[in-house]
Amino acid sequence: MNGLNLNAISRSFGDHQVLHSTSLTVQRGEIVGFIGGNGAGKTTTMRIILGLLEPSAGDITWDGQPITAADRRSIGYMPEERGLYPQMPVRDQIIHFALLEGHTKPSAVAKANQLIASLGLQGREKTLIQDLSLGNQQRVQLAVSLVGEPALLVLDEPFSGLDPLAVESMAALLQEQADMGVGILFSSHQLELVERICDRVCILDKGKVMANGAVSELQNDGRSRWTFNFSTPATQFAAEVALIAHTTIEFIDESRQNLLLTVDGNDQDLPLEVLAAASRQGYLRSIETYRKSLGELLSQRFISAGIGTSTPSALVLTGDKS
After folding, report:
1. Three-state SS for 184?
2. Please, what CATH class does the domain formed by 221-318 belong to?
3. Which of 317, 235, 232, 237 shows the shortest CA–CA distance to 279?
4. More confident residue, 317 or 166
5. CA atoms of 177 and 148, how far apart (whole Å)
6. Contact at 8 Å (CB) between 109 and 95?
7. Which fold has domain 3-217?
8. 152-173 pLDDT, tens digit each
9. Exposed, middle or buried, 95 (CB in 10 Å: 0-12/13-18/19+)?
């Protein structure tokens, strides 16, 4: 395989097993979101990838061969905790880490200038790290992870503390790195962001991989969904649709003007009986196709992960499935 492959990795600390046969891949040019609740094992997995911890079982390969210390030197790492010198200026900090990566002094200076420009740090070159906002400290941390021109980026909560504009800037930079063939693995609790920018998502819960794939694949649960918005309460519509086989209808707010229709089967057309019921109800404002968000998938399928978003309680009416 072209890139990183963790095969059945386990890790215990004494009698406590943190990872249970965890398998994970990050191909070159791919952005993978790594999500799970606190204590799920994400940081332990990242430390094993970096060689800071040894697995109790399993193996790791890079481009199909057992990973080596030389391979790990091509990994850029961004920890959740700041790994910077607080009393060193921004530009000197980046130059320092570039020199540690083997750059010559002129090359290190050029690399620092390039990263400062691309990460929007112009004007802060001489500012001490301790005097930066958390968001700008995060940008410098990312710059440091990029000085070695890595083949793989491992980022622990890279968007933490960033304002919306900085989030967009960093997301664009990560996409740019992926477009250049860099594999990216990052953890985040910002599920909308993970859903938007990742090619694939790996969900870890209590040291076990609960799901791994594109969000669209995880959303594929064998059902089709639409939302209906009426300008008046749609009680009659809901009662009629509840009698249609292989359907479920639910109110999604207290006004009873907004409903979610679920029909068994992927890529189904909206049943004609439903449209007829909507016509009889009247006052229909809109019908839209609906896909569950990553947060909803987590809250409904992986509740023990503790990272899903709650959904409002709803009155569910289910059609006869006989």
Report:
1. strand
2. alpha beta
3. 237
4. 166
5. 13
6. yes
7. Rossmann fold (3.40.50)
8. 999 998 888 788 887 888 888 8
9. buried
